[in-house]
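Morning F.,

Quick status update on the modeling queue. The single chain you submitted on Monday has been processed. Sequence for confirmation:
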Amino acid sequence: MNDDMDTINRMSAVTISREYGSGGGEIASRLARRLGWQLIDHEIVERVASEMGMSTQEAEARDERTGGILSQALNSIQHLDPTLMAYTPSAAFLSDEEVYRNTLNQVIRAGVARGHVVIVGRGAQVILAQRRDVLHVRIVAPFEQRVAYVMQREGLDQAAAQSRIQVKEHDRRKYLETEYHRKPEDAHLYDIVLNTSFLDLDSAVEVICLTLQQKAKRLSAKTGELGPAVGLPRYPAQPEDFHPPVA
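Structure tokens below.
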């Protein structure tokens, strides 16, 4: 096990993207405990708030959402009376949103530079996409099971749980699309996608640890030594296209 951890510790971080109610946050927490790494989840919001000199509540209003406090206020003013904005550049109102995004990126990169962190959400799978020493994981589950998870964990009735999932998913998807022009369900953003419909949370942690170890072993490989074709011979004959039988 010590040899396995020595290999795993060559990696700097794991990012966890998750559908709301899939157990992704709990998996991230268990993974961090298993590895002895630091979990960076809500701490990101608190750190960004500190860096920007704002309250945690103000930072939470922007967390994994587009349309924070300033842009919401701007939209409200424009809706009520567009003439009030005629001589005011919108950039002046929205600049704080850009500062928040840049500070968030800096906090995430600083965490990875320190090393051995598990980062939950916040677009980290895009921000750190070019880092070979980072494993990117996506956790998903069927909607009905996510509703049951939220009902049990948050003490909500079915209708409230469904509504909460839809709102959270909308905010997260819009955040990633607006800030980084990517969709969270894009499988190419991740090294591995795990479905917790049958896989229990501890088993998911085991799979992530194994994948983390295997990726760590390839850190020194050259680009030409990576990919599905490595080590495979040519087909013995030209593969034929499959044609379904004609009825």
